[in-house]
## 1
Amino acid sequence: QVLFVESGGGLVQPGGSLRLSCAASGFAFSRSTMSWYRQAPGKEREFVANIISTGGDTNYADSVKGRFTISRDNSKNMVYLQMNSLKPEDTAVYYCKTPSRSEWGQGTQVTVSS
């Protein structure tokens, strides 16, 4: 059973930081690209960032480039998203996923507000 458990979300002021974590299980994590997506209220889910299996290459949406950093720990089956200089438009539910599987986790809510 493929499972993603996201955590680390919360309420933060504009300009603040959060670190999201995702625990993955049920598939060959160390051989899989991992991605973060987000869905804001009333909007479609959108790509945020991904990282290849070795961690040697990453990609980011233009809206988060330079502010967010994706990383992974294959020894723990974990993927992370460090989010700095947060803006109100970053408010969304954040999800992790591997492109090779259709399952989604429950997500973690990030709210950026003063």
## 2
Amino acid sequence: EVQLVESGGGLVQTGGSLRLSCAASGFTFRNYDMSWVRQAPGKGLEWVSSINSAGYTTTYVNSVKGRFTISRDNAKNTLYLQMNSLKVEDTAVYSCVTGIGVTGSRGQGTQVTVSS
């Protein structure tokens, strides 16, 4: 059974930083591309970033380019999202997802709140 457990969210001021983690189990993590998605209050699910299985190809939604960095440690079965220069509009529940996009198996998420 696929299990994805996110952590690292919290309350931060505009311009601050957070590092999210996603601990994966129940599948062969190193064989899967992975993504981060987010859902802001009252809005739909938004794809944020993806990384290929080996960790050398990354993509980002335009709104986070230059501020967020996705990475992974296949030895630790863990996916990361380093978020810098946070903005109020980054406030959302962030979840990791198997595969590219929003349709894979998804964890319960971690809340990120950015205050002005």
## 3
Amino acid sequence: QVQLVESGGGLVQPGGSLRLSCAASGFTFSTYAVNWYRQAPGKERAWVAQIISTAASTKYADFVKGRFTISRDNAKNTVYQQMNSLKAEDTAVYYCYTQGVWGQGTQVTVSS
């Protein structure tokens, strides 16, 4: 079955960077778009970014545009999210999502 496993979260200071990974299995990874979402404490889950199957197109929520970059390596069945210039408000659990399946999430905490 479809399985998604996120990693790369952690504690980082404001202005810092992290790279999240989402390792996929159980389906033909290269033929599907993948999304990143996040959920901050007390808030609803929010869409962050999307990359289509060929990586020819990416989309971003306005609140991360210019700071986050989504990419994928179809040979490794992995999607990445490079997060730069992190702010306290980026603190959340980050999830990848495709085909109705969510990963378990990885915690990102931005704090001094």
## 4
Amino acid sequence: EVQLVESGGGLVQPGGSLRVSCAASGFSFDDYAMNWVRQAPGKGLEWVSSISWNGDRTYYAESMKGRFTISRDNAKNTLYLQMNSLKPEDTAVYYCHRLAGSINYWGKGTLVTVSS
């Protein structure tokens, strides 16, 4: 069974930093690209970032470039998102996502709240 379990969310002040993680199991983690997607309160899903299977290629939504860093540790089957210079508009539930063919796999998400 594919499982994606996010952790590391919490309350952080504007300008602060936070790292969220996604522990993957039930599939060959190092065979797949992985994604972070977020959903702000009352809004739709927003793609944040993607990383290739071996981590050598990374992609970011424009508003996250220079502030967020996606990475992975294939030995630990774990995906990360380092978020710096956080803004109130970054407040959202952050989801780990994997696409396998036409099947989407999602974690339950971790809430990040940016507020003073």
